[in-house]
Amino acid sequence: MGQQRYKLVMNILLREIFQNKLKPGDRLPAERELSKEMAVDRTSLRIALKQLEAMEVIEIRQGDGIYVKNYLKNAGVDFLKMLFLQQERDENELIIDGYLIDEIMEFWVEFLPLMLKVALRRLTPRDMKHFIDLVNAELEVIHDRRKVMACEIEQMEFVAEKTDNLLYLLVSNSTRPLKKKMVELYINSLDEANLREYLEVKRSLLKISSPGNPKNAATISDGFKKILINYSEIMRKALHVSPADERIVDKFISSTQSE
């Protein structure tokens, strides 16, 4: 129970810091007052505060107080990781908005092709066959979005492993909740025709690849980046543009054309 309580406190404070309800420089109430306010024992509160301090979102100044830090200047990927895990648990309450998703998608459009380029330099012909088999397996389950998403994650994990690079592996590991959410949004934003096209183009890119060839690896990763950019635009529109928005714009355009 103690562990659950400290997580609850940590999640509440994380959310308030992210939503700017607690601003950089704000001083939190004293421990006694804060534990009473949050209906939690002092031990659980201290564990939560230590976790937040380790994440660089608060600063505990002995004899002075607890201060909120600027997470944009201090926090790491683990801060976002915790927010995404929280969003998974509290689906009915929006924590992560579409504009943050845009920023994360922008990161993935750059990071995934770069990771792929490194992996392609190290893949053996047998590795490449396995990679293509993974895409073929995804095409076979194209009517089941949940299975398609699982295939996408499996391919990302495979690519990260094949980079044989500690930093790529650690970034990939620490961003799993982000990857899961991005894949969910990305796959669900595509209709079946676009999804099939995406998978077939990806498979064709891999088929023309020459494992271990640096120049070819750069060409393939650039091609994959173009695919991501193309379909991320579809996802971005799905996130930000409602049917009502489209009707208003269409109506406006029609009225201006008839004048």
Please provide a brief summary of the model.
β1 and β2 form a beta hairpin.
Report on the structure:
There is one protein chain. The protein has 259 residues and is mostly helical. The chain folds into two domains: 2-76, Winged helix-like DNA-binding domain superfamily/Winged helix DNA-binding domain (Arc Repressor Mutant, subunit A, Orthogonal Bundle); 97-242, Up-down Bundle (Four Helix Bundle (Hemerythrin (Met), subunit A)). Helix content is 76%, strand content 3%. The protein contains 13 helices and two strands. Strands 1-2 form a two-stranded antiparallel ribbon. α1 crosses α3 and α8 (145-163) packs across α10 (176-189). The chain is elongated, with a radius of gyration of 23 Å. The N and C termini lie far apart (68 Å). The mean pLDDT is 84.
Please give the structural blueprint.
Blueprint: H1 2-18, H2 31-37, H3 42-54, E1 58-61, E2 65-68, H4 71-74, H5 77-89, H6 98-122, H7 125-140, H8 145-163, H9 166-174, H10 176-189, H11 192-207, H12 214-240, H13 243-258
Antiparallel strand pairs: 1-2
Helix pairs in contact: 1-3, 5-10, 6-8, 6-12, 7-8, 7-11, 8-9, 8-10, 10-12, 11-12
